[in-house]
Amino acid sequence: xxxxxxxVRAWSKAAMFSLLLLVSTPxxxxxxxxxxxxxxxxxEIRAQASAYSAAFADAAVDKLMAMWTDSAxxxxxxxxxxxxxxxxxxxxxxxxxxxGNRQLDVVVESVTFPADNVAVEEGITxxxxxxxxxxxxxxxxxxxxxxxKWLMESVSESPYHPASLVNFLSP
Length: 171
Fold this sequence. Notes:
Number of helices: 5
Number of strands: 6
């Protein structure tokens, strides 16, 4: 019995669906494996944010610098750009010389992994002044995994504008 045009289209659709299913199944499995494999990386990056906060509170510039790559770039909230470890170290030294030790609350909002050795961390920092008031800053950090350690390759800060006062006051 001869097949008409409708039967051929039905077979073509079925073949395309089967092919799509075969091709996409490994992607779904790989995506799940990627999420699972980055769980430990995300934990490490979040722990580094806590260590950064502690080192900042102690004005421990050497500990802070150990978290940066040699070629790092830092863009502060004012748009000033610091290139490389020596300029970033000088910025820390100047900050602590003028401001002393400061508590710094770091709130990590998200960590994503565009590649296995690249992570993007986004969040908010709130340095506390002598009066206890905090001026929050939004930040984005690009981490690079080098020799099994996550290091900051670029950091950019921008003013934080909360959607409401409740968002600003809550941690």
